[in-house]
Amino acid sequence: MVFLFAIQRFAVAIFTVLLAASHCLAQAPSDYSAIRAKLEELIRHEMHAHELPAVSIALVDDRQQIWSAAFGYSDPQSNTPASVSDVHRIASVSKLFTSIAVMQLVEDGMVDLDAPISRYLPDFLPRNRYKKDITLRQILSHRSGLVREPPVGNYFDPTEPTLEQTVRSLHKTELVYEPERRPKYSNAAMAVAGYVVQLLRERPFAKAVQQSMFQPLGMEESSFEPRRDLMQRTPHAVLWTLDGRRLPVPTFQFGMAPAANMYSTLNDLSLFMSALFHGGEGVNGRILQPESLEEMWKPQFAPALQRTGIGLGFFIGELEGQRLISHSGDVYGFATEFAALPDARLGAIVVNTMNASNARSERIAHYALRLMLAHRQGRRLPDAKLTTTVDPQVRERIKGRYAKGSSVAELIVRGETLWLERGSLRTTVRQVGDTLMVDDRLSYGQRIVPLGNRLVIGSDTLERVEDKRPAPPPAHWVGLTGEYGWDHNELYIREKDGTLHAMIEWYFSYPLEEISRDVYAFPNYGLYHGERLRFKRDAQGRATQVEAASVVFKRRLTGGEGGATFKIKPLRPIEQLRRDAMAARPPEERGEFRQPELVEVVKLDSTIKLDIRYATTNNFMDAVFYNEPRAFLQKPAAEAVVRAHRWLGQFGYGLLVYDAYRPWFVTKIFWDATPEHQRDFVADPSRGSRHNRGCAVDLTLYDLATGEPVEMVSGYDEFTARAFPDYPGGTSLQRWHRELLRTAMEREGFDVYEWEWWHFDFRDWREYPIMNVTFDTIQ
């Protein structure tokens, strides 16, 4: 279809943007200043509220890039500002280019979208128990029934296999669904489409797309290969976890390159978007006929009048009555939204440098489209809803557990943050006016209405329920729970609410259906619906790996498993470290401090138990550091511990103390002995520690009936992520114990240390000096 409507032109001053000199879009008119101001306000709000390192945006009106800008830092450590010329990894937005590459083959008469894929790939042999063949039309519209990820070359696999090896690995898989039966998003399928392009064009896929698409579009700064000149301009992005970690961003190339491997810039993507608005005509030539684009923008396998769904490569939706074509991209460190209104010839591209933050990129992009539409139609520009943290009194009043049948929701307070844990996600709840809503990196917009002891979430009304002590999981699950996979992408098998769960791709926790002792199924929704998990166990019944959705995840050995005490290898001999520490002096401090008043905790309540690990060799360095197994705290802190201990009695628990006041010289030994990459778990002696001030205590719960310590997610002094207070793994009972301990301590004026569930700091710790006295000198 040829566009018939006239394009509005603006005879106003030129706003300068950074574009490739020989392939510039027309420049931006100055009367978009009000749109820019509103978008800047929203972008800065989003960056602050969700800790986004950088956000880049480009707006396109017909042939014009009306604005491009970058906010934040491409390298936060060196304070290097983000730039519109930064090169981003655009992840699944790559699929648009792969889909067009296939449609170019159609126009050239080289493929038929509805022919069996075996016509072009006769050796492509995934197990297909159905009578229907796979076609390219199904592949491009995610209706092929293929698995989401190929066994090799997938989102997790750092080995960088070839595209051919990746596609051949699918021979080991079986179709999840009959072709065309239901949508199933598949990176594996798009890799197959790219492989068809590679074979029929008789050149590597990346070079085929470079010649047939990037060159006609003038996209000189785009590539499906990691070109050195482009990689040097890639921002330092962030990979985050639910328990608060920031991890190095992996840069390996996917074997499924056609699905997710493309690098590009705002300018190049703007050139692409403008070509879409002009029926496939780029600055250096045509990439596709208008009729082919219209076919791509038509929902596939849908009723004739249906306006939304999945097209060929594109997702088709509506925004304010306009047809919306879009695709999101999520990859390690980057979250991209490519969204356009082709009938109005308006579009927005947003990239932020924090993975899985697509809700933020989409929100900015859609708001930009609404602003441009309002401007085009002469309407008042809409205001963005800017949320705030939830009012503290509201947070405290509504926190707790709610249920409707088997559906459970939990509102959890963490400092000034309110979390909603429901279904597969844990998200942040924020406030706009009197309205509560989900406003998180992962999701945006769902309203939450507290009504006394009820909670309305969307169309569901849940009732407040008692947060009872969970039952232990079945014995045959115990050998399955744990961590699997890679440092850059861990899979957690955990128990939650009486069901075994798989938390995959860091954030998505899915309840599993038990098929047999070692075989489980993902639920009928989410990223991996229809696929299964198959565990392999050792002779002791402990799983050594799980094949989840055709990808093999090896068990991660984190240390401290099975109740063993976590150990490190000291950098130097302990006695040498001890001599050096005893000869050193604590840091000098200025200011006025309260007079220390250390008291022995068990003298205030003898039912508090002790397991002073540093008076034994049962600790992370196999050495004795204290001459007596005693626990001292400043008197107000000690009294607060006693109150917490007695409060816990109503639940059948008491406190067991591992450590309390610690002489400064011991802190120095710990620091000097610990490898640098593990020093988050020990204090820096140049600043002293809260233990040195007599205001920190390490402890756990013990069962009053048995006298035995309860089982927590990790052991004491375990230098792994399992020690984090919000580590999501383990069992419901372990996490419940951890949360009960935290509640008891926080209500008495302690804060948990961000790296250790057992470590609590008394909030008055700044009022006390660093001390270096040994236990035998304390009266």
List the helices and strands and how they pair.
Elements lengths: L13 E2 L12 E2 L3 H18 L3 E8 L2 E12 L4 E2 L6 E2 L4 H14 L28 H5 L22 H6 L18 H15 L3 H13 L10 H4 L7 E2 L5 E2 L9 H4 L2 E2 L1 H12 L3 E2 L2 E2 L3 H7 L12 E2 L4 E5 L2 E10 L2 E8 L4 E7 L5 H19 L15 H7 L1 E5 L2 E8 L2 E6 L2 E8 L2 E5 L4 E8 L2 E4 L2 E6 L9 H4 L3 E5 L2 E8 L2 E6 L3 E4 L1 E4 L2 E3 L10 E6 L5 E6 L2 E4 L19 H10 L14 E3 H4 L4 E2 L21 E3 H14 L4 E7 L4 H10 L22 E8 L28 H15 L3 E4 L2 E7 L17
Helix pairs in contact: 1-11, 2-5, 2-6, 14-17, 16-18
Rg, Å, rounded: 29 Å
From the spread of the alpha carbons, the general shape counts as globular
**Could you describe the largest sheet, including whether it forms a barrel?**
8 strands, antiparallel
Helix count equals 18
Say how many strands there are.
Answer: 40
Low-pLDDT stretches: 1-29
Regarding quaternary structure, what we see is single chain
Class by SSE composition: alpha+beta
The CA-CA distance between the termini, in Å, is 90 Å
Q: Could you give the order of strands across the largest sheet?
A: 5-4-3-16-15-14-13-12
**Helix content range:** 10-25%
Overall mean confidence score, pLDDT? 94
- Estimated share of beta-strand residues: 25-35%
